[in-house]
Amino acid sequence: MGKYTNTRPDWVPEHHDGKFTTSVMSGIDGVKDTTVGNLNPNLAQGARPKMRGMLSVEEYVKGVAEGNRMVLSRAITLIESNSPRHFPKAQRVLQALLPRTGKALRIGITGVPGAGKSTMIEAFGNMLCDAGHRVAVLTVDPTSSVTKGSILGDKTRMGTLSRRENAFIRPSPAGGTLGGVARKSRETMLLCEAAGYDVILIETVGVGQSETTVRSMVDFFLLVVLTGAGDELQGIKKGIMELADAIVINKADGDNLLKAKVARGEYERMIEFLRPATPGWQTHAYLVSAVKKTGLSELWDIIRLFEKTTKENGAFRKRREGQLLDWMNSMIDEHLHNLFFDDPVILGRMPEVRDAVLSGAISPSQGVAELIHIFDVHRAADRHVDLLHPDR
Ligand code: GDP
After folding, report:
1. Shortest-distance Cα residue to atom 19 of ligand 1
2. Which fold has domain 52-100?
3. Which single residue of 46, 242, 265, 381 has CA 20 to 30 Å from 220?
């Protein structure tokens, strides 16, 4: 059934009663926040907040707006919760903080495992912190799960960056579909912006559609590659290069420097044949050594130039607007789909219609027409009953 499944989308709380959308803004006071804390080493046991009980919406909002990392971390945990009890509260927190969002530069980073992403993010993040920026690092990793571990999250990563006052590192929410992970990461990004982080780095690996998903939530997208373009290219999925606003050839140091320069030429030649990822911006390949910390300030200059160029030519705003609408549309899409496939009347009639299609008694189009008609009538009847009995 492709991307459609018979299950609840991740942005809908588990065990919802189908009315969650109308309860979003009504809120639930006194929801007990029993969720777990951040994995940020900054929040090592000794530094963990004593407030294990609930926070009110106002406390979450105030704490995040003041840049309090412990409260930010707990607010993220709240929005990551799949509990229907937490959903309205999380949305109220988000709603209150929305005016404070949108000002950060959002940068996506992808590359195969071992390309040096975390080493690079650590060096790059430290450099930005030194320059007075506040840097939030998020990961989008659909393989992340509470029990199975993940590609990105298992190692102890970015040790020095995580200890910085100006940095905030949050691993991927665990479990769920990529759509669910993406919804949570998008909202986490907004919370980080509201907390005053002005550079958001979102890291992902090439699993499923994760690169495309991260591309759809960032302004600038960076592809980290290694030398030996011939072999390396095999590992890069077709189309990923077309998403990139810059290609960084990492590990351009020591004996590898010469090979890196050759690789850069090869990538440059390939880029020429690609559509630009961003209108009015020419993607190029750059050399970086995350270990030697070379090429990083040049990379930041490129990103700033990209920001300036795309803000001037309107591509920046256009992309953000498109991303917001796409995000909303995909949630509507998923919600309507689930409304249909979770509908008890549809579930009841589906086998009969499927059999009719399989036996050739009706065409698939007729089968669809039949089911949609049943759905329409049934939903209309529901609405009718609701009007007569508004309390139900
Ligand atoms: P990730 O899986 O993409 O996050 O890659 P890592 O950051 O974990 O790096 C994989 C390996 O490459 C580690 O052993 C790093 O020390 C090494 N590495 C990363 N960047 C560089 C670099 O610029 N130069 C060299 N020589 N090694 C690097």
Report:
1. 116
2. 1.20.5
3. 265
